[in-house]
Amino acid sequence: MFLKHYITGPIQVNTYLLADEETKDAIIIDLGGDWEEIKKDADGLGFKINYILLTHGHFDHILGIPEMQKKENIPVLINEKDLFLTQHLSEMLCHFRINSDVTSVRIDKFIDEQTPLKVGNYSITTLSTPGHTPGGQSYYVDGKLFSGDSLFKHSIGRTDLEGGNHSQLINSVKTKLFTLPPKTVVYPGHVDFTTIEDEIKNNIFVR
Ligand SMILES: [Zn+2]
């Protein structure tokens, strides 16, 4: 499986371009910005971006989407419980002192653990991991976990923002993520990659 990592937007979100190199089908996980650059890469490799998959609705993970929507009609997928976060961005942008004229992002489809998802011939397993946000989801594909802001290297996401819930997040990580194969590589929504094995041993927030 093809995987390329970008750091995008004002809060340095990890954006991922995934593709089945055989079928040339591709998806993007979270899009904080830099749409043009990612699109250029995808075009150069002959990939067709099927949809944009969101781990949750926080502004920093979606700020690149309106730029894409000006020119393309690529569906944007999220859990319905995070829709409210994508519709009222001004408050959060103000709170984080980010200058942006984006006030909302158009969502095209709601997905949950029951929605079958694929990229080319690879199946994607959706894991409901609420706690950082009510509709937070992680995605497992080809031995890789895209954990959004639920699980970071030796840390977890904050739970003090609207809809956050600390015990719910701990429960999500323990029951949905720490039960994955130990060698699973974790690609979080910010900063460094890790593995499930390393997190079970060294993440002091989840004991
Ligand atoms: Zn977040």
Would you kindly provide a written description of the structure presented here, covering whatever features stand out?
The chain is an alpha/beta fold. It has six helices and 14 strands. It has helices at residues 35-44, 65-71, 83-87, 89-95, 166-177, 196-202, and strands at 2-8, 13-19, 25-29, 48-53, 76-78, 109-110, 117-119, 122-128, 137-141, 144-148, 151-152, 155-156, 185-188, 194-195. The strands form three sheets. The chain has a six-stranded mixed sheet, with helices on one face. Strands 7-8-9-10-13-14 form a six-stranded mixed sheet. β1 (2-8) and β2 form a beta hairpin. It starts with a strand and ends in a 5-residue tail after the last helix. Zinc ion binds at residues 56, 58, 132, 149.
Strand and helix map with partners:
Blueprint (H helix, E strand, L loop, with lengths): L1 E7 L4 E7 L5 E5 L5 H10 L3 E6 L11 H7 L4 E3 L4 H5 L1 H7 L13 E2 L6 E3 L2 E7 L8 E5 L2 E5 L2 E2 L2 E2 L9 H12 L7 E4 L5 E2 H7 L5
Parallel strand pairs: 3-4, 4-5, 5-6, 10-13
Antiparallel strand pairs: 1-2, 2-3, 7-8, 8-9, 9-10, 11-12, 13-14
The structure holds zinc ion.
Zinc ion (ZN) binds next to loops.
Q: pLDDT below 50 for ≥5 consecutive residues: which ranges?
A: none
**Which secondary-structure class do the elements indicate?**
alpha/beta
- Could you report the average pLDDT, rounded to the nearest whole number? 96
Overall shape: it is globular
Number of strands: 14
Radius of gyration: 16 Å
- Helices, by number, come to 6
Bound molecules: zinc ion
Give the termini separation. Answer: 33 Å
Q: What proportion strand?
A: 25-35%
- Report helical residue fraction: 10-25%
Q: What oligomeric state best describes the polypeptide chains here?
A: single chain
Instruction: Report strand order across the widest sheet.
Output: 1-2-3-4-5-6
Q: How are helices and strands ordered from N to C?
A: EEEHEHEHHEEEEEEEHEEH
Main beta sheet: 6 strands, mixed
